[in-house]
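Thread title: Can someone regenerate the structure for this chain?

I was given the following input by a collaborator and told the matching structure tokens would be attached. They weren't. Posting the sequence so someone can regenerate them.
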Amino acid sequence: YSSGSQDVTAALPELEDIDFPDCPFIFDCEATPYDDDGNPIPFENIMTRLTRVGEMDADDFDTDVVFKFFDAPVWHGRDITDRKYTDRFEVVKRIFDPDNVARTGNDLESTFQSAVENGHEGLVIKRKDGSYTPGGRHSQWKKWKPEPETLDCVVVDVQQGSGRLSDRMGALSLGLLGPDDEVIPVGRVGTGFSDSERKEWWVDHETDNAEGQVIEIEFEDIQYHGGWGLRFPRFKCRRPEGECDTVERAARLQDRDDDYDDWLDGREDTSLTDEPDEEGLGDLFG
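Best answer:
Regenerated them for you:
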């Protein structure tokens, strides 16, 4: 089920290929999409599936989703969250085919470098004697990702918040400069703001002073899939005297020269400058 309680099982037919045990269980895993050559590709490929479920058959999917299992908080109907992690992972390794088990390594630095070089986001590091605590991050595990880069982006739109943020800004739509100084949409940023900053941005929007401002953000990656998108952007500050960076610079910061060159070569034949579908990518880009 999605976070909105929508049944999305039909969008993940690869689940049917897994030999699950015939007993009550809960397993924890990561779902990663791969291309035909076996290379990890942006997670929004899965998000696109979820938004199109019911409109296409499983045979229409042009990517493969691989489930990598790494934890077992419930086994044979028994809560084993208090057992140490090595015991819970042993359950995973006994049950699933090696292709469906998360890869591990003995040397932390080399394992991290290998993961990043192979197109993954980084590592999840768990204490060997740690328990399983649902509901968010805690002292038993942490993520290790490459240090974020920074960019100066132009604000192209302001979205109103919801819930307690309904009277202020919820997120800013961002752009970077492409060829001929055209503004290319690259997603949204909705984190890193204080409540007072959100109010200031909403006032600026209502007085037509927000769009066109330049802000500095940090981000972990930029990816192209039907449109450019910044992954995990976070607001840092306004840049009143700043100039907007280019898509080319963002791509080169993340060693995506080939992605940029391919995009540039194909722009005359396809409308690749359209903004990524917000319904499909909203959760990803903030």
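Residues 270-286 have pLDDT under 50 and may be disordered.
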